[in-house]
Amino acid sequence: MAKYTLEANTPLDGFSHDFNGVSVTEVNGRSIVSIATPLDGEEALSKALAKAYKLDNPKPGQSTASTVDNAVLLGMAQDQTFLVFDHMEDKPVEVVSQHLKDTAYLTDQSDSYVMLRVSGENSRSVLERICPIDLHPSAFPEGSVSRTIMEHLGTVIVHEKADTFLLMSARSSAKSFLEAVEVSALNIA
Predict the structure, then answer these.
(1) I need a labelling partner for 44 at 20 to 30 A (CA). Which of 4, 53, 70, 153 fits?
(2) 133 and 179, same domain (yes or no)
(3) 139 with 118, same domain?
């Protein structure tokens, strides 16, 4: 009987490319756990997040960052956040559950998304061609989060820091999503 060895691949095989004034890089090694707040459980969840991750629970459209596991909490909607953090194990929900106990409903979203980081002095120019929201720092300051559409693909965009954006889109359309970002980058070069 033949023996097979399986190797995990990332959605975009570790894509990284520098264009004129912008870098587009696949982000790997991060887990995404959706956190839903139980009815009347806001206070308990906020205390658990503060204790475990040194994070405040953000309002929708905002994010908070922590040095614990390089965690970022994204305010996705009322009573729903995404915890994005460094974790290479197979069961990120179990890791988060150890910290938050029964203060939240948790769902692993790690394999649902492809993540791209677009950074550099021309990053906003690249994104404004395919993103319908206003990304000017006065309208979308650092720490902002939004669900939007880019080239007909559902996308979460996070303004991480000056000229740096994290994009999350469905893993099933990862190559189409990358192509949209690449074409926009090539068109501004």
Answers:
(1) 70
(2) yes
(3) yes
